Amino acid sequence: MIVLRQHLGDALRRRRTGQGRTLREVSSAARVSLGYLSEVERGQKEPSSELLGAICGALNLPLSVLLRDVGDDVALAELAAEPPPARRRDVVAAA
Amino acid sequence: MIVLRQHLGDALRRRRTGQGRTLREVSSAARVSLGYLSEVERGQKEPSSELLGAICGALNLPLSVLLRDVGDDVALAELAAEPPPARRRDVVAAA
Question: Is A43 in contact with A3 (CB distance < 8 Å)?
Fold first, then answer.
C-alpha cells in the first residue's frame, strides 16, 4: 500500500534541500523540534495539519504546491505498483 | 491558516456522495467505524496514512487523484486568502 506520509516526507525534504537549508534552520523557523521535523521527513511521523502548515510556512511553500509535488510522486508510485494491464495479455493471446 | 484535514474531508465527502454511497457503506468497505469516517469527512480527525489508504481503497479512488482534488481546492483557498497585490495599489496611486 502507498503510504502518504512517506511521500509527504520525501517532498518536504526535497524542497528543503533544494533551498540549501538545514533541518536546524527550518525546524527553528517552523517552531517545531529538529527531531520532529526529521521524523516527518523520514516518513516516520504523521504531521498534524497545523504543523504541516507551519513547516510549509517556514519553507515559503504554498500547501497547494506541496500537494502537487506529493500527488505527482504518488501517481508515479501507483503506476509502478500497477500490474501489467490485462488488455496487453489479450493482445498477445489473440496474435 | 489553511487546514489540510478540512480540505481532505471535503474532498472525501464529495467523492463518496458523487458515487451515491452512504457513510455506512464506505466505512464498512474501508473497515473503519462510521463515526470515524464521519469525523474525517468533517475535518475533525486527521486520518493516518494507513486509514486514508483504506478509505481511498473503499472509494476505488487512487490516492494521487484525491491529492489532486485536495490540491486544487487548497489552491483556490490560497487565492481567496491572498491580500490584493501591492501592484494594484501602486497603479491607482500613480494615476
Answer: yes
Residue B19: other Cβ atoms inside 10 A = 13
| Any A CB within 8 A of B68 CB | yes
Interface check A63 vs B, CB under 8 A: yes
- H helices of B1-95, in order, are 4-18, 23-30, 34-41, 49-58, 63-81, 86-94
The answer to whether the pTM exceeds 0.90 is no
- State the nearest Cα–Cα gap between B16 and chain A, in angstroms: 20
Check: CB of residue A24 under 8 Å from CB of residue A34.
yes
Query: The complex's ipTM?
Result: 0.85
CB A35 within 8 A of CB A23: no
- Note whether A52 contacts B: Cβ–Cβ < 8 A: yes
C-alpha cell at B70: 485536495
| Mean pLDDT, rounded, of chain A | 92
Neighbours of B89 (CB within 10 A): 10
Asked whether the beta carbons of residue A67 and residue B53 sit closer than 8 angstroms, the reply is no
